[in-house]
Every structure is written in structure tokens, then in C-alpha cells.
Automatic annotation (TrEMBL):
Residues 194-227 are annotated as: Disordered. This is DNA (cytosine-5-)-methyltransferase. It is an enzyme of class 2 (transferase). Residues 194-207 have a biased composition (Basic and acidic residues). GO terms for molecular function: DNA (cytosine-5-)-methyltransferase activity. Signal peptide: none annotated. Keywords: Methyltransferase, S-adenosyl-L-methionine, Transferase. Pfam families: DNA_methylase. PROSITE patterns: C5_MTASE_1, C5_MTASE_2, SAM_MT_C5. Its EC number is 2.1.1.37. It comes from Halobaculum lipolyticum. PANTHER family: CYTOSINE-SPECIFIC METHYLTRANSFERASE, DNA (CYTOSINE-5)-METHYLTRANSFERASE 1.
Length: 441
């Protein structure tokens, strides 16, 4: 008998990075919500279920067509900007109250309001690293307060700080994850699900060339269709893997993409076609595992960077591999900004390392994300690859909105890793059929 795909919803969904990871891990995402109107074109373009634009504080949980307790997972990353206001309110009292008039209201409370309403088997909540060291006005640790509220709802809670690079994402991005379940099992130990590690020597920092076969090989959609002797196709998530491989790097992620000024235009503009096939295993995966000629003639989406003036281009050229300047360190006559007001950095990403954290600030300027080999800032597609969005995930919005959406997202590959651990460890669903949308047919 075929198991159906577990059901989930995505709160504070943005463009859908977490949704993408949940789907790739075998979940059927039923609904998403975000307050930012510009995320809807992107979300709708890449996902086929309803996404609501609105203030979650004023939104009642919708009817998902499920029986009581049938929802498997509530997931989301609520903003939590004012840690000092986190208090020990009774979450179950939020069900009928107006939260918009409470200045102490925190959006994570709405996450828990939805958990209280649906009573899912499990939840997954993402937040910033700074929560770990934050205290409220009463001197209580914020993480302890929030965990206590989750436990009051009947959930066993685990809190873990994770770096996305440890799960195959070519980017250092530390985020805090709360995992809870109410079905009496242990939450996954996510340290045991890590697939990647720091390199141990210079050789391990080099690009990891793809050795996988093309589509003429047996289709390996399943994450479980391997023998112990077979090389496991990227990505592969399992508890306590036999070996972990070196981190994926900027080179692994983006150096197969064509220059954005193929005819020498200044400033750099965009490129709309691939000019070579994938080189690394990560590139091969992120393109959708194409065959030897399948990349030819395919449209390359969002490979566009902002325009640069000649001063910026010259400054970018001065930077060596993986080096950075504080704005104030640059001679005054070459300053892009007043150093007393904008203590920012110019940083060229190191091709031999995971990138620094991709941030939403990219929509304002790209000075901290200068291409490792070209005198320009990175494109939307390059930022998306560093976040592990597949190449067929399009951002059909203005470039500034696209950069912001990429920077705000949960890396899909990290989300897939955690969701796979939850699916297997908590929900006990490990059959290959859950990884295919046809599993419910």
C-alpha cells in the first residue's frame, strides 16, 4: 500500500524557499501566507497551491479540508525583532483575541496560534542566531520562554543552531531551528544528519567535479535507492552517514554560469543562455541533472546584476580572491560612501569557500558580494544558487525585489535536510513513494 505524502503549511513563506525544501523532502504543502505582496508572483509561479498575502495577525487559520489532527507539519520563520518584549503569555488565549492592538505582540505567537489550532504532529520554526543570547525585559532567556510556550501546547521541543554549509548549501548561514512533536517520539538530532564538513586540506577546497551519469542512467529520484557500495547522488540525507564530504564552495555553485557581459559591455548587464554544461556535482544537481546536451538552448533565468559605475568596477578589480576592504580603509578619493556614515565592506567572495551569508541587503547594493573572477557584484541567479534555489526556480519580479526575496529565504536544501529528518524520525515515513507527487494517485 502506497503511503500518501505528509501534509504541511508554510507561515511567513516569502518567495517559498522553505516550501521548496519541504516539497523536495516529500511533503505536500497545502497553503502559505506572507505579508509582502511582491512575494506572491514568485511563490505562485513556482508552487501550485494557494498562497495568501495578508497580515497573519488578522488571519484566521483556513479550512484545509483535513480532519482534526491530520496536518503533519506547521513550518515557518516568523520575524522576531524585539526580543525584549517576548513574554510568557498564554498562547491558547490568542485564539480569539485581537493581536494588532497589543504592542507587546510578537509574530512567533501567531505561529504558535496556528499550531494550537491545527494541532499538527510536528512543527518547524526558524529564526535568527541572535535569539540564543537574547533576554526579555524580565531577564529571562528568550529561547527558554518560547520553548516553554511550545511545551505548554503539548510538544516535545528541541532547539538547534545550524550552519547551512553543513548540509550542502554553498553558503555559511547560521540559523536557529525549533522542532517540536506531540506524538511521543524523540526529535531528530540534526548534528547526526549533517552531510558536509570543513575541508581538511587545500585539495578538498577545489571544485568537486561531477561524476554522475546522464539521464540514460537509471533514474534515481528516490533518496533511498542505493546499495551500501554505490556512490550516493547529491543530495542524500540520512542519519549518521558513513562519511561527510567537504563543504560546497562558491566555485562549486556558480562558476559554470556565463559572464553577464559576454560581448564586453560596460557596465555588466545580463546573460540569458548557458554557454557550457555543468562542471561540479552541485551545478549538475541545481540545473536539474541535465544530460550531455540538455543545457543547450535552455533559458537561463535571472542571471542579471545591477549596473556599476566605473569607480565601483575599478574597486572590485582591486580586490584579491576572498579579500575585503572596510569602506573606511580605502583612500578617501576612492570612497564610494562617507566612511563615517557607511562603515560597510567591499568583499570579493572566495571561490574555494562557501559564501558569506546571503542577505536581503543585496537589493540595495552588492558590495559585499563581488564575483570571484569578474569585476561586478553577483546576479540574482548566482545569489539564488548560493541559497540552493534550483535554476528552474524563477523570480518573475523586479531585480530589487528578487534580491530581497532570495536574501530573506530559508535555503531550500537546508529545509529539505531538516524536513527529511522530521519525516523519517518523527513521522516515521521513509518509503520512497513520498518523494513523488504521484504518490497519492
Amino acid at each position: 500500500m502506497t503511503e500518501s505524502r505528509p501534509k504541511a503549511i508554510d507561515l511567513f513563506c516569502g518567495a517559498g524557499g522553505l516550501t521548496q525544501g519541504l516539497s523536495d523532502a516529500g511533503f505536500d504543502v497545502l497553503w502559505g501566507i506572507d505579508h509582502e505582496e511582491n512575494t506572491k508572483p514568485t511563490y505562485d509561479h513556482n508552487h501550485d497551491h494557494e498562497m495568501t498575502v495578508g497580515d497573519i495577525r488578522e488571519t484566521s487559520p483556513p479550512d484545509l479540508g483535513l480532519e482534526e489532527g491530520e496536518l503533519d507539519l506547521v513550518a515557518g520563520g516568523p520575524p522576531c525583532p524585539t526580543f525584549s518584549l517576548v513574554g510568557r503569555s498564554k498562547i491558547n488565549s490568542l485564539e480569539g483575541q485581537s493581536t494588532t492592538t497589543d504592542e507587546r505582540h510578537q509574530l512567533y505567537e501567531d505561529f504558535l496560534r496556528f499550531v494550537a489550532h491545527y494541532e499538527p504532529k510536528a512543527f518547524l520554526m526558524e529564526n535568527v542566531k541572535g535569539m540564543l543570547s537574547a533576554a526579555n525585559d524580565d531577564g529571562e532567556d528568550v529561547v527558554d520562554v518560547i520553548s516553554g510556550q511550545m511545551e505548554d501546547l503539548g510538544y516535545e521541543v528541541t532547539v538547534k543552531l545550524l550552519d547551512s554549509a553543513d548540509f550542502g548549501v554553498p553558503q555559511h548561514r547560521e540559523r536557529l531551528f525549533f522542532i517540536g512533536n506531540r506524538i511521543g517520539v524523540d526529535n531528530p538530532d540534526l548534528d547526526e544528519w549533517k552531510t558536509h564538513r570543513p575541508p581538511s586540506n587545500e585539495e578538498e577546497k577545489q571544485i568537486k567535479f561531477n561524476t554522475a551519469g546522464g539521464p540514460e542512467e537509471e533514474n534515481q529520484e528516490s533518496l533511498h535507492a542505493y546499495t551500501e557500495e554505490e556512490e550516493k547522488e547529491f543530495p542524500h540525507f540520512e542519519e549518521s552517514p558513513e562519511r561527510r564530504v567537504p563543504w560546497n564552495t562558491v566555485a562549486d555553485a556558480i562558476l559554470d554560469l556565463p559572464p553577464v557581459s559576454p560581448n564586453g559591455e560596460t557596465p555588466p548587464t545580463q546573460a540569458e543562455e548557458y554557454t557550457m554544461g555543468p562542471v561540479s556535482e552541485y551545478q549538475y544537481w541545481i540545473r536539474g541533472r541535465p544530460g550531455p546536451d540538455e543545457w543547450e538552448g535552455r533559458t537561463l533565468y535571472n542571471h542579471e546584476c545591477r549596473g556599476h559605475n566605473m569607480r565601483d568596477l575599478t574597486l572590485y578589480k582591486l580586490l584579491g580572491e576572498g579579500t575585503s576592504y572596510i569602506i573606511g580603509d580605502i583612500p578617501e578619493e576612492h570612497q564610494p560612501y562617507r566612511s563615517d556614515i557607511f562603515p560597510d565592506k567591499l568583499k570579493k567572495q572566495n571561490p574555494k569557500e562557501p559564501s558569506t551569508t546571503v542577505v536581503a541587503h543585496l537589493y540595495k547594493d552588492g558590495h559585499m558580494f563581488i564575483h570571484p573572477t569578474e569585476a561586478r557584484s553577483i546576479t540574482v541567479r548566482e545569489a539564488a544558487r548560493l541559497q540552493s534555489f534550483p535554476d528552474d526556480f524563477e523570480f518573475p519580479v523586479a531585480r530589487t525585489h528578487a534580491f530581497k526575496q532570495v536574501g530573506n529565504a530559508v535555503p531550500p536544501l537546508l529545509a529539505q535536510a531538516i524536513a527529511t529528518a522530521v519525516r523519517k524520525t518523527v513521522l516515521g515515513i521513509s518509503q520512497d513513494s513520498t518523494l513523488s507527487p504521484e504518490a497519492d494517485d
